[in-house]
């Protein structure tokens, strides 16, 4: 199964060209990365990747608040946000930055369906650095597929993708180079949730 047969995924290859992508990777890689050991309910666990979370003032996200401090936008992240918003005609108020340092880093099967993302979460996912496959698995049928995410590509996860599919980035033990992934999200502010 290819991404084209998963109608809830749209891949734009070369959203950034190779030179821009390499520069963005280097700049993001040089940011201050926090420790990836977390204490949850008194137990320590190690996240198999490094993460930072950046959001507009007042935006809270339970996933990140459990693990991560909220950072403000850097000029680079803001510039990319503006470009993605203009291209997709969608607004985002936050971005989760993931660094997969090499093929040992991964993310297990999950879907991004936290309540704060609202009923129709559209997520824009940018890749810089190593090409990794995003695997997906249908929640009901078990149907599986994958899409390769090259450096500079933009993957749009349409809202129903989170409803119907789980996704993962599996480990690749022989891969020595890193991948940085930006996932732009729109988190519904707490006050709007109360009013809704
Ligand atoms: Mn995800």
UniProtKB/TrEMBL annotation:
A GO biological-process term: DNA alkylation repair
Annotated TM spans: none
GO molecular function: dioxygenase activity
InterPro entries reported for this sequence: AlkB-like, AlkB-like_sf, ALKBH3, Oxoglu/Fe-dep_dioxygenase_dom
Domain called Fe2OG dioxygenase: residue spans: 91-188
Domain of life of the native organism: Bacteria
Entry protein name: 2OG-Fe(II) oxygenase
Organism whose genome encodes this protein: Methylocucumis oryzae
């Amino acid at each position: 199964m290819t991404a084209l047969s998963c109608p809830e995924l749209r891949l734009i290859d070369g959203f950034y060209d190779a030179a821009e992508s390499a520069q963005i990777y280097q700049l993001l890689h040089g940011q201050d990365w926090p420790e990836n050991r977390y204490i949850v309910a008194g137990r320590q666990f190690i996240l198999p990747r490094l993460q930072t979370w950046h959001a507009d003032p007042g935006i809270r996200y339970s996933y990140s608040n459990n693990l991560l401090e909220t950072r403000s936008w850097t000029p680079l992240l803001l510039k990319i946000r503006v470009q993605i918003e203009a291209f997709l005609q969608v607004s985002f108020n936050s971005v989760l930055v993931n660094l997969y340092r090499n093929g040992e880093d991964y993310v297990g099967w999950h879907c991004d369906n936290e309540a704060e993302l609202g009923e129709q979460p559209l997520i824009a996912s940018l890749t810089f650095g190593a090409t990794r496959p995003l695997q997906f698995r249908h929640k009901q049928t078990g149907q599986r597929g994958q899409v390769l995410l090259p450096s500079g590509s933009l993957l749009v996860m349409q809202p129903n993708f989170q409803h119907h599919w789980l996704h993962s980035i599996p480990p690749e033990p022989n891969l020595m180079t890193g991948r940085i992934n930006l996932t732009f999200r729109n988190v519904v502010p707490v006050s709007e949730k109360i009013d809704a």
